[in-house]
Amino acid sequence: MTNRELVELALYSSKKLEVFEEEMGQEIGYVQNGLLLMLADDPESLADTIEMQRDVGVELGVLEAQEMKNFHPKGEMNMQGVGVGLYDKKAAYADPYKVTVGYANKARELGAQVRNGVLVTDIKVENGKVTKVITNKGEIATNLVLNIAGPWASRINEMVDVKNVPVGLMTLQHALTYPDGDYEPMTPTIIDNSIPGNLYFVRPESGGTVLIGMDKDDPNKKVDPDNYYFDPPFNTLADLFGLIIGRMPFVKNYRFQNAFGAPDAVMPDWNPAFGCPNGAPEGYFCALGFSGHGFKLAPAFGEMIAQMVRGEETKFDTGIFEIDRFEKGLALGSQQNVMG
């Protein structure tokens, strides 16, 4: 079941991205186009989740299958297997690269050093405390290390002998297509989570293209982030387009441009992990396993990381995301139905 804390974080982050250009001085391609999430569930089974999200502040609409049939402006959709749709008219998308550049530039303005092309090879610990980071460009003396390394999080944990954080990898596959005719940037994003293990999305991308993506629900797959096959194999793309054309027949007329893939860090319960792991040295903190939702949650978690390392109370309650929750039998429910 979706948790309230995650919805609060997603909504806060969405509002921060909406004013990002004003606060950070960086244009990020922010488009508030709305989002429709299609699920196999019946509306009654989601009543508590819907009420909770509305109570937090998400302007969530509920659509029946027949109402969604003609929802997409490009053509009719096949609603077989879909029980309900959740529509967030204020959902948006933005350019992750531009957001990263904006944060990095603002950090430099405030006195931080941002070093590109630097590979961390080891972390030195003395008397139970972090003392030094070893890189391919030299050593950095420090008493603080933040592991926010995404797919490389486990590798960083091993450098300080932390082996009890069950972060895995999942496969994200994407294809960029040219639509049949114009595809407005304000066309709503469609996420179909009605087929078990095969969540996919369709949304506008820059230059009039359409981005199609799929999360393969296999967090136990062994993937090396340094030797990952970034060009999805043909059968994976065939599966992806087969699923989408079955739901949206008009996609069969789209022209394929290119495809790309990437590994992403996931936790067993598909929720982020936050804090200092059991057995870690003093000065070592983690924020990892965002399970495909890191960009959406980044503004909120970024602020909380800064508050945590300064010893301040965090803006939001992070207790349910504690990194050692799996050892304590406190795994959370899925975050698949979180809007924002």
Structure description:
This protein has helices at residues 4-18, 20-24, 47-56, 65-68, 96-109, 153-159, 234-247, 294-309, and strands at 35-39, 60-63, 84-88, 120-126, 129-135, 138-141, 145-147, 168-178, 189-192, 198-204, 210-216, 255-266, 273-275, 284-288. An 8-stranded mixed β-sheet has the order 2-3-1-9-10-11-8-12, sandwiched between helices. Strands 4-5-6 form a 3-stranded antiparallel β-sheet, with no helix packed on it. The chain has a 3-stranded mixed β-sheet with strand order 7-14-13, sandwiched between helices. It contains 8 helices and 14 strands. α1 crosses α8. It is of the alpha+beta class and 340 residues long. A hairpin with a 5-residue loop joins β9 and β10 (198-204).
Main β-sheet, in a few words?
A: 8 strands, mixed
Order of SSEs, N→C? HHEHEHEHEEEEHEEEEHEEEH
Low-confidence stretches: none
Strand order of the largest sheet: 2-3-1-9-10-11-8-12
Query: What is the fold-level CATH name, i.e. the topology of the domain at 34-91 and 168-266?
Result: D-Amino Acid Oxidase, Chain A, domain 2
Which second-level CATH architecture of the domain at 34-91 and 168-266 applies? 2-Layer Sandwich
Shape assignment:
globular
* Number of separate helices: 8
Give me the secondary-structure category.
alpha+beta
Radius of gyration computed on alpha carbons: 21 Å
CATH superfamily of the domain at 34-91 and 168-266: D-Amino Acid Oxidase, subunit A, domain 2
Helix content: 25-40%
What is the beta-strand fraction?
15-25%
Query: N-to-C terminal Cα separation, in Å?
Result: 16 Å
Q: What's the total count of β strands?
A: 14
Overall pLDDT score: 90
Please identify the top-level CATH class of the domain at 34-91 and 168-266: Alpha Beta
